[in-house]
Design goal:
This protein is α+β, with helices and mostly antiparallel strands. The chain has a single domain, classed as VSR Endonuclease (Endonuclease, Chain A, 3-Layer(aba) Sandwich). Helices cover about 40% and strands about 15% of the residues. It has a four-stranded mixed β-sheet, with helices on both faces. A hairpin with a 4-residue loop joins strand 2 and strand 3. It is globular. It starts with 8 loop residues before the first strand and ends in an 8-residue tail after the last helix.
């Protein structure tokens, strides 16, 4: 088994959209999006009761996600979003994807030794 993922913050309030996990060294924001609340195209749905309300609410959530992505990209951050069903079906793969992005970032950064 590979080492654990380190160097993350849980839902930092200073970051747009308050990512579920923020890896500052890798500038990586990880979001765990609930299929219902974020309108998953695979398994999300609109309730039949108060359908107009829920459709508007979920669509507003999706638009907020797009604004958050734009703002984080503008700040030079990378973003990965996982649907709730992806996490439930294959958590190990989700963690592997995050680990790969964090590791790639560490390899692409210039050395921190020497110049300050």
């Amino acid at each position: 088994m590979q080492g654990s993922l380190r160097g993350w913050k849980l839902r930092p309030s200073e970051m747009p959209g308050r990512p579920d996990f923020w890896f500052p060294e890798a500038r990586l924001a990880v979001f765990l999006d609930g299929c219902f609340w974020h309108g998953c195209p695979k398994c999300g749905h609109y309730p039949k009761t108060r359908a107009a309300f829920w459709k508007a609410k979920i669509n507003l959530n999706r638009e907020r996600d797009r604004r958050t992505n734009r703002e984080l990209h503008r700040r030079g951050c990378r973003i990965v979003r996982f649907w709730e069903h992806e996490i439930q079906q294959d958590l190990k793969d989700c963690v592997k994807r995050v680990r790969t992005l964090v590791t790639q970032s560490a390899r692409n950064e210039p050395s921190r030794h020497g110049r300050g």
